[in-house]
Amino acid sequence: MTTISDSSTQHSAFRTPNSTLALVTCAEWPGGTADEQALVTALAAHGVAATFAVWDDPAINWAAFRLCLIRTTWDYHHRRDEFVIWAAHVATVSDLWNPAPLVRWNTHKGYLRDLAAAGIPIVPTVWLPAASRADLSAILAGQGWTDVVIKPAVSASSFATLLLPPATRAHGQAHLNRHLPTRDLMVQPFLTSVRTVGERSLIAITGTVTHAVLRPPLGGAAGLPSTPTPVAPADDEIALAARILAALPVPPLYARIDLVRDATGALCLLELELVEPALFLDQAPAALTRFAAALAGRVRRET
Prior knowledge:
Layout: E1 21-25, H1 34-44, E2 50-54, E3 67-72, H2 80-93, E4 95-97, H3 100-106, H4 111-117, E5 126-128, H5 136-143, E6 148-152, E7 162-164, H6 169-179, E8 185-189, E9 199-205, E10 208-215, E11 229-231, H7 235-246, E12 254-261, E13 267-273, H8 285-302
Parallel strand pairs: 1-2, 1-3, 3-4
Antiparallel strand pairs: 5-8, 6-7, 6-8, 9-10, 9-12, 10-11, 12-13
Helix pairs in contact: 1-8, 2-3
């Protein structure tokens, strides 16, 4: 595990001159994506200098930044405990967004149970704790499910996520046997609407839905675009997004709300992304402008 050193012993030679905001990333994405690069330009228009910083680089002095924005930390799921400790540390020396309590809460998909308890409709889920035993055939028979998805409760970028048609149950059981000894897992029905209507991601900046995209399902689907495509969010999608945001323990600066429809057409929350989601800002200039303005405002309050 990387040791978090005292900030007085660290150095900040990696930083660009006068940088005030860190776009937090991982070693595999040292310059983020086009979204983050566009954000750097938008922030510069507000007089805010931003630079990329790898979250587990021990040389970084996080206290040197007025604000640290978590973005493309797409390896955290391999070391979630370390990442949560890192976030808690950074929050003591800088202004971290989204905040450390949300990082801890949202990096384990058990947050879905909390939201369900608050009345938010989620995709039906069987929760399998690490080190338990599970019989996939018995789960499917008990739930009346056919096609299912198995995923870890701590995951990013579809890590160890498996879509299983009925003929591949033996493969699914092997997947459980391989991962369940060390990981909490989830089993969910595969909702066929994902291949017809599609999965819709609503992006909220400072509590307001700014735009939405239609995202291609795992493995693709005939009749749906192969890349994320801008769409106008429906009224019931905006209403559910507002309910979800209102149910959060801490207000987020940014959020991505991934919604699907069940067999009756009712909306369900598939995932709520508050840590490192793609926000598709390149497809929504107004949202990019709003995000940059909100960040610049927070930086000024920290000066």
